[in-house]
Write a structure and sequence with these properties.
alpha+beta
Length: about 170
């Protein structure tokens, strides 16, 4: 009698572990295909209440620069467009606004790159103290600036090559 009861308990235990394994696999696939939920920064840029919508991870808050006269659009020397030089979208040009530009496989990204070597939320390009900066968002295969892997937010000089997966781009005036 005890051996039958032991076998029944082992049978249910095995089924529970099997279902747990199935749920872990489904969660991992869902996370890889649709990305992970991240909190949205408020429009004013201050950390605080998080929105319930899924967006790219928040950018670090830039330090306030001392007050200076506003630069003229053509005379500030800042890049105004992103040009893809290599990859499936080679030749594509995107205007750069003042906000951050997210790059990845996710449909939520501003620049969507469908590539086996690009993460769902791969990198962010943002304007920080008047300079464009690239930030790797803990991607698997990394973000490279002029052949060097980016591990911290790094300024991107105009004309320097940024490589994400099999796609390369430059910032131009």
């Amino acid at each position: 009698m005890t051996s039958a009861l032991t076998l029944l308990v082992l049978h249910f235990g095995f089924l529970a572990v099997l279902w747990l394994f199935v749920f872990v696999i489904v969660f991992a696939l869902r996370s890889d295909l649709f990305g992970q939920r991240a909190r949205k920064m408020p429009a004013d840029g201050t950390p605080g209440k998080a929105s319930s919508t899924a967006t790219a991870p928040p950018a670090p808050a830039p330090r306030a620069a001392p007050a200076a006269p506003a630069p003229t659009p053509q005379g500030d020397g800042r890049a105004t467009r992103l040009v893809i030089t290599k990859g499936a979208k080679a030749g594509l040009e995107m205007p750069l606004g003042d906000g951050p530009l997210t790059i990845g496989r996710s449909q939520e990204s501003n620049l969507v790159i469908r590539d086996d070597y690009t993460s769902t939320h791969h990198a962010r390009l943002m304007l920080w103290n008047g300079r464009w900066v690239v930030q790797d968002l803990d991607s698997t295969n990394g973000t490279f600036l002029a052949g060097e892997r980016v591990s911290v937010p790094t300024p991107v000089p105009t004309g320097a090559t940024v490589t994400i997966g099999q796609t390369s781009f430059e910032l131009r005036r």
